[in-house]
Amino acid sequence: MSEVTVRHNPDRERFEVLVAGNVIGKAAYKTYDAGDSPQRIFYHTVINEEYGGQGLAGQLATVALDETVAAGISIVPVCPYIKKFLTKHPEYAGSTTATTPAHLEFLSAALAAHSRA
Questions:
Q1: How buried is 29 (Cβ within 10 angstroms: 0-12 exposed, 13-18 middle, 19+ buried)?
Q2: For 109, phi and psi rounded to 5 degrees?
Q3: Interacting residues of 98 by C-beta distance below 8 A, sequence separation 6+
Q4: What's the CA gap between 64 and 73, in Å, rounded?
């Protein structure tokens, strides 16, 4: 396989996996303002089907969560993949915030606004 790169694309609020310069996967998030403790609500992680089974989602999650923690931002796992990943990686427990109804309401409104734009 060509060289794999994982990068943060803050303008699109996502982390991306690239192969040969093409985006083949992403971990999308919304930034949630919790006052003095910024949070990232991770809501969707996907790898293009033809690249499945190669560990790319794990690489993507690792970079996304490591960079989030390094930036002092809490992880809010809504995405099923990120939730499952966190159960296997307890080192992120101290940087994870449980999902609340307020998070889900914010996410729903943010995604609805985005789809109308």
A1: buried
A2: -65, -40
A3: 76
A4: 11
Laid out side by side, the sheet with 14-19 consists of: 4-9, 14-19, 22-32, 39-47, 74-77
The reported pLDDT for the residue numbered 33 is: 87
The pLDDT of residue 1 is above 60: no
Rounded distance between C-alpha atoms, residue 35 and residue 26, angstroms: 27
What does the alpha-carbon distance between residue 83 and residue 54 come to, in Å, rounded to a whole number? Answer: 19
pLDDT at 77 over 70: yes
* Structure-block tokens of residue 14: 């996502």
Supply the pLDDT for residue 34: 77
